[in-house]
Amino acid sequence: QVQLVESGGGLVQAGGSLRLSCAASGIAFSISTMAWYRQAPGKQREFVATITSSGFTNYADSVKGRFTISRDNVKNTVYLQMNSLKPEDTANYYCNTNIANLAWGQGTQVTVSS
What we know:
50% strand, four-stranded antiparallel beta sheet, mainly beta
């Protein structure tokens, strides 16, 4: 059974940092290109970052230079290190593959106060 479990969100002041984790099960994780997405209230879900099986990364322009995606193929976990957080980063954060073909998890809420 496919399962994606996100964690690590919370309330942080602008300029602060958080590290999100996403534990995946039921998929061929080590060969999957994984991604982080986010959805703010009243907005569509948007792409944040992606990482290939070999570690190549790509980022949305809005987070480039501030966020870092990484993965641990032994733990079947993908991470998102978020630095220099801004209020506009406030959203529920989700992981999935780069084509979002898996059932979405609950996500983890990130709230950045100004």
